[in-house]
Amino acid sequence: MEQKNKIALITGGSRGLGKDMALRLAEKGIDVIITYNSQLKDAENVVAQIQESGQKAAALQLNTGDIKSFGSFVVQLQDILQNKFAATRFDYLVNNAGIGGYTPIADVTEEAFDELLNIHFKGVYFMTQKMLPILNDGGGIVNVSSGLTRVTVPGSSVYASMKGAMETFTRYLAKEYGSRGIRANIIAPGAVMTDFGGGHLRNDDNMQKFISNVTALGRPGVAEDIGGVVAFLCSEEARWVNGQRIEISGGMAL
């Protein structure tokens, strides 16, 4: 069974950054499987948009913080690869799914800590481990960090710490799987106006002004600023980019 197109799997692809990543990858002629946690309708809309552009697409439900569910997810993924994409493996894994967390150190509960740990680090770690056997040699992994690993904003200690761990993990992926021709890179978006974290930035005019003032290009980011970089990393043009943290922030806090 020979797959025709390259295939990308994007977690959290129903809206925001993940949606834009999915659409930009499809523009490059890559078929796309997205996961969603609860927004089925949004996910179906993204799938429909990709199919209208001429690429194959599918959506699967996944809670990336529920590590015990990954085994059954792999079975569903293999099933959809075979039946919808005439494939047994895929080419690009984009670990995008996530939630926000804005709590001062003194107020962080163990439950909140564990939720961010499971979604942003432990879940990504073990999801990647499960995907590696069905990722094609010569493929790629794109992880998602944050400008907050470089720029310190009070209230983001847990979230940023998990993203710091992801940056380290990405370098290890690049080193350990280079022998299979698999590249691993991590993007670090700056402040982006989406509904992430309950629209934390999008709904706060003062914060938008603050971000604009500390960003060289003079505005906060939007989802459409990010997806094209992920599409580039999942292409032959980026074949020599490996083990890198690429900040996409418009020149924030330079």
Q: Can you lay out the helices and strands and say which pair or pack?
A:
Elements: E1 7-10, H1 16-27, E2 31-36, H2 40-52, E3 57-61, H3 70-85, E4 90-95, H4 110-131, E5 135-144, H5 157-177, E6 183-189, H6 205-213, H7 227-233, E7 245-248
Parallel strand pairs: 1-2, 1-4, 2-3, 4-5, 5-6, 6-7
What does this structure look like?
By secondary structure, this protein is of the alpha/beta class. The chain has one domain: NAD(P)-binding Rossmann-like Domain (Rossmann fold, 3-Layer(aba) Sandwich), CATH 3.40.50.720. It is built from seven helices and seven strands; from the N terminus they run βαβαβαβαβαβααβ. Helix 5 links the parallel strand 5 and strand 6. Helix 1 packs parallel to helix 2 and helix 1 packs across helix 7. The chain starts with 6 loop residues before the first strand and ends in a 6-residue tail after the last strand. The model has no long low-confidence stretch (mean pLDDT 96).
The CATH architecture can be given as 3-Layer(aba) Sandwich
Instruction: State the separation between the terminal residues, measured CA to CA.
Output: 50 Å
Main sheet, how many strands, which sense, barrel? 7 strands, parallel
Number of helices: 7
Brief digest:
By secondary structure, the protein is an alpha/beta fold.
Notable features of this structure?
7 helices; Rossmann fold; 7 strands; globular; single chain; 7-stranded parallel beta sheet; 254 residues; alpha/beta
